[in-house]
Structure formats: C-alpha cells, structure tokens
Design a protein that fits this description.
alpha+beta; 16% helix; 4 strands
Length: 93
Amino acid sequence: MTTYEYSCAHCGRFVQRLPMGSAPSALDCPACGSRAGRVYSSPGLIRAPARLTTLREHEERSREEPEVIRRGSAAAPTARPAHPALARLPRSR
C-alpha cells in the first residue's frame, strides 16, 4: 500500500492509502464529501547520520579513484603466517 496525498478546498490536505498505481486524480473528502484533487509531493525520505553518509561517499569515490599505497605494508613479507594451514600455500618470490 502506498500513501497518496489529496487536497480538499474546504478541509485542507488528507492522505489515503491505496495500492500502488491505483490512485485516482480526485477523491471525495472523508470529512465533507466534496471532490479533492491529488497533490504530488516529495517522498518522505529518512536522513542518514553524517558519519554514515561520509563513509558511503568515500566508498563510492574509491570505486573510480582507489587510494594508492606508496609504502610497503607494516608486516614483513617473510613473517610467519598466523595459521599453520597458511604456511602450506604457494608463495611468489
């Protein structure tokens, strides 16, 4: 069900829940019975916290422009693997 908004000339605005795509351009006002036209308004969007928005923007930018690491990693390439099964994996030299 989708919420549609209508405006009555006498009573003001009211909302009506109808199946998506089935809203008529005019409805009878539930308070006075006169015809009310459909109002097209912006959808009710939920605002995300600033930190989440920043992280999403960073993630989207990294798809096209990944950060380049100029230094080697902190772990030495000859460091022993933490798990014994990883020691059996082939390594490039």
